[in-house]
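Methods — Computational structure assignment.
A single polypeptide chain was analysed. Its primary sequence is given first, followed by the predicted tertiary structure written as structure tokens.
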Amino acid sequence: MTTLAERISRGEAGAVAEAEERLRGAISADEAHNLRKRLVQHYTQAAGARRDGGVNHLERDLEAALGHMRLLHADSPDHPGYTFRLATLLTETGRFDEGLALLEALKAAGGSFDVEVNVLGAIARALYSQGAFEQAVPVLEGLLDMTLGRFGTDPSREQARLVGSLLARLARIRINLGDCELAVRTIEACPFAVEHDFLGRTLARAETLLRDGPPSVRGDARTVDLDRLTVGCVKHGTKYGSDYVNRLYSMVRRHLPGDWRFVCYTDDPKGLRPEVGVVDISGLQVRGWWAKLALFDPRVPLADETVFYLDLDTVVVGDLDFIGGLKVGFHILEHPDSPCFNSSVMLFDRSFAAPVSQRIRRDDLQRLIGDQDWIEECMPGLDTFPKGLVRLFRGLHPDLDAEELAKTDTRIVTFPTNPKPHMIGGGWVAEHWR
């Protein structure tokens, strides 16, 4: 007979909800333990590459996973695997102090080479996500010394990928700290060749910035004029309703001065408020986040040459006038968790950014997971927004109130996974998402 835990693992419809309901009743400790383990796996699984192009919401729910993991850890506080998983979930949900304290305790306890690498790697990722780059550097350098000393010059494919991910993070920090030359040397010092997407793009980024500088230093870089600006979003398919567009318009209107225009690229304009202009993309032959490519198509008529783009699952929590006077070019968000770009927020000159649309080929859509991979591959030497102004929801401590959030200098919060803004019933999200 198939157990409920096995049904969750197989992805059977309704199994997760049934398990959550069962856990609220009277069941044995062993059954509760097994169900919680399966639910943590379900809520944290990446489910492989997003080949749906972001058409559907990710099912990951780190808050739900954390709730079950806390209970598993409370039942078995001396289980190092549970302690490690709890620590990583804490840091992935913005509870950095609590998570790093557990990781430091695991580090002090010692263990095998693999355990030490995993713990130090989790510490480095947490510091990277915090933006604590100076603290992350010695951890990453120590990890590289350990792994290179252990793996030698002929590592396995898995070992080489681990080294590649460490090198990509360390080199990305060098770039973010303004030392592209050191970033290149860091990668080139590796004693063996590494095939790793993040590493290859990071090396291209460092070399491009060294050769050309960022777009903002070009003599023809356009200064952002808030009276000659289009604010854009994309709604394609059924993932988001018109309420997401209308609320985004309202938030931008409250927080961005100037006589700018708001445009939605969409295949279905029903329900949009009259202030929202429409660009028809119903004939677009791509889905999900690949629909963003329409933003860069120079054939689309817009009143302005400068575009400020925001994902629909965005909450504006502070003044956006920091973009006024920036020189573009092309600004994009540096991903706070991974050594790559994040295209949730972009500011670009249409003529400069046109190659993103012009150079794309059908096989690129199949080869790459998403638009931000293509943007970095196509144009690696872009400017990034000032650190800390744009945050991912999962990287903010969830117990922050509106006043505490304002002290962080955060202006924009994006919600790439669950929960989405409409799932949160109170606090600063409800206060701003209107």
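Note: Residues 213 and 381 are 7 Å apart (CA to CA).
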